[in-house]
Amino acid sequence: MEAKLVTVPEALPSKCYSTERVGISKATHDNHLTLWKGYANKTNEIRKALQEMDPDPSKANQIYSQMRALKINYAFAYGGYVNHLVYFNTIGGQGGEATGNVATLIKDAYGSFDRWRSEWIATGIAGRGWAFLAYDHLEQRVHTFMGDAQDTYPAWNQTLLLAMDVYEHAYYLDFQTARAKYIDAYMQVIDWDAVNSFLPK
Predict the structure, then answer these.
(1) Which of 22, 65, 152, 182 meets the CB 3.0–4.6 Å disulfide criterion with 171?
(2) pLDDT tens for residues 62-103?
(3) Does domain 100-197 have CATH number 3.55.40.20?
(4) What angle do CA 72, 77, 79 make, to 5 degrees?
């Protein structure tokens, strides 16, 4: 059986470039797209290697082994692929307060959109890589998570709804080290319709 491969578009949807109105440039997105393609390529490379290797338990080792290296790096590569998939699909909107079902879920979990917004911004400033909004299938509510890398901290049984990249590559060309200014700009271009589309049906 052949490994299933992931794909990344050759170009971002045109709506992504509407972020130029708030200072997030086309150059940033184009460079960022190259990075996303890299995560997809490595995901595919690791999937093929896992498919082709002999999964002999006697060769596995927790200090170093091919199985350990592939499995650890798969989580990072595929995490980077999915995180960017959600990031690029949920930007290019009108921003502002949440709309649709996710607005109700945010209010139920946080009391108000403003309370969630403050926690979301603080999470983005405190994190090293990502802020995530996810739907918890067990509790049937949303929660904001922090990700210090592509594969850290989010919990099981969650659906990712919104992913804000706060690595410097997402904003340095436009805002240098002023992450808070980038986050403010990002908040103005969230596509809440796209966020709602990730909610489980």
Answers:
(1) 182
(2) 999 999 999 999 999 999 999 999 999 999 999 999 999 999
(3) yes
(4) 95
